[in-house]
Amino acid sequence: MGLALEEAGKGYRLGEVPVGAVLVAGNGQVLARAHNMPIASRDATAHAEVAAIRGACAAVANYRLPGSVLYVTLEPCAMCVGAMLHARVSRLVFGARDPRSGCAGSVLDLTGVAAFNHRIEVVGGVLAKSCADILQSFFKARRADKMGEK
After folding, report:
1. Is residue 75 among the annotated active site residues?
2. Could you read off the pLDDT of 112-149 as tens digits, one per residue?
3. What residues contact 55, with CB distance under 8 A and at least 6 apart?
4. Which of the residues 7, 49, 121, 149 is marked catalytic?
5. What's the mean per-residue pLDDT of the chain?
6. Where are the beta strands (DSSP E) in 37-82?
7. For residue 18, which of 43, 55, 48 has the smallest C-alpha distance?
């Protein structure tokens, strides 16, 4: 999760919502690291999780990532959980819960839907305070900037 927090910091410095993700193979090898990039890339799908999955798939030359673990600083949204399901990520470890759009237990839980042909083991709350702190700091600074513009 420490590497994912480093990625979140990169996103913060670039003005992106500071979410970081790291995808690790079953043997512990880091396959990909990423941070949110939708603003810079002008791509609504450029979430940290999706970027990490794309990078990992390229690294292993396969669209499936069985046995892999995705570490992410914020509970993933529906799109990101969908990408994890399609890639066959085995385990999700996330930091802060997302009460507005989290789909690994907060708003919905798409990780264990019986009708799907894959399920993801989930561990939430890892370094939750550190993960929440960077998000809160980012949005506090953003609100302060907007107040200064008026």
Report:
1. no
2. 999 999 999 999 999 999 999 999 999 999 888 876 66
3. 23, 31, 32, 33, 34
4. 49
5. 96
6. 69-74
7. 48
